[in-house]
Amino acid sequence: MEFQEDLVPKYWYNIIPDLPKPLPPPRDPPDSEFSRIELLKRIMPKEVLRQQFTVERFVSIPEKVREAYINIGRPTPLLRARRLEEMLRTPARIYFKFEGATPTGSHKINTAIPQAYFSMEEGVNHLVTETGAGQWGTAVALASRMYGLESSIFMVRVSYEQKPQRRTIMQLYGAKVYSSPTSLTEYGKKLTSQNPDHPGSLGIAMSEAIEYAMTNGYKYLVGSVLDVVVLHQSVIGLETINQLRNLDEEPDVLIGCVGGGSNFGGFVFPFIGAQKGTKYIAVGSFEVPKFSRGTYNYDFPDSAGLLPLIKMITLGKDYVPPPIYSGGLRYHGAAPSLSMLIKEGIVKWREYNEREIFEAAQTFLQAQGIVPAPESSHAIKAVIDEAREARVKNEKKVIVFNLSGHGLLDLPNYESMMKRMS
């Protein structure tokens, strides 16, 4: 057990100093009536904000945070998908990092814990955030409770209705969960007056959470996209590097799905920094085509434009995604660091549709017995494609992917997909 705990890193990895060119900094819009960058100082915990702008390559993990990581089950398992290899008749070796093994069922807890810890250290007593599919809200609800803090979660309405189990778990942890858009904020009132049946979006829920935090003097926690989140999530990739080393394996292909980019960046960026791997694949949803149709511009992370502009691949802050099966991939943009790496050609991208990911999920769960989250099933589809290519070319490459969450709370979505597939 002690040996396993040694695999948990004592620092986070920050890719910013290792990017091919300087990352364009966040900025205020030219016609701004107030400074969004100054607003960050009001709504974000001080240490979280400091880490957001750090250029340190390695950032020390506080020992109490590292202990919390261990207590929630880190290191998470790195498993070889032998039955999937056999089913695909591939000479490739396939490994997956199983972030679904955490108590909240996904990678999101990796940044919720340090953000809640730094909030507690600062004397904060109430945290606010948004959530799409529910994984991030669940992680914040648990992390808040771990440090004796209250929490309020604005959940995208379509997910609030599709995933009542996620809502129940957050409430069991003690969080207050609201269906966004709500009547609790001016922005929410504006949207619901225009469309009482508005399905919501992650950008809208983000704006509501920020406004709610500002109005009540609470602190806001960010779940994806920003550099500090990708920094905290690097615990995934750093652990995986250690685990592969113990197996005497060198990875060739590294794959992860992308909503905002935190699980992909947290998994893949440490490998890029260590110059391990030859192919990095970011996988998105065909129904939310940010990679194929988005532009690389400065845009707001939230729909109301309360946060600073960041340069990223984006479909536009006003984009309202369809109420698809995969709530965690319904975000309009991608993390600035990931966006740059895609534009520079270092990271490749793919987009898959509902039928493709449903078939991939079914193949994986019948082979390995694990029900993957619909989001992670996008990565699985890319793995299957790479494994089949290896079979054609007779390449004994090593494919490693991040199974960023389990799908046990997504069964209603799978049931609806089954009906549509029949």
Automatic annotation (TrEMBL):
Give the GO molecular function terms.
L-serine hydro-lyase (adding indole, L-tryptophan-forming) activity; pyridoxal phosphate binding; tryptophan synthase activity
Q: Name one GO cellular component term.
A: cytoplasm
Q: Which reaction does it catalyse?
A: (1S,2R)-1-C-(indol-3-yl)glycerol 3-phosphate + L-serine = D-glyceraldehyde 3-phosphate + L-tryptophan + H2O
Question: How does the annotation summarize its subunit structure?
Answer: Tetramer of two alpha and two beta chains.
Query: What family is this?
Result: Belongs to the TrpB family.
Recorded hits in HAMAP family, A to Z, give: Trp_synth_beta
Q: What is this protein called?
A: Tryptophan synthase beta chain
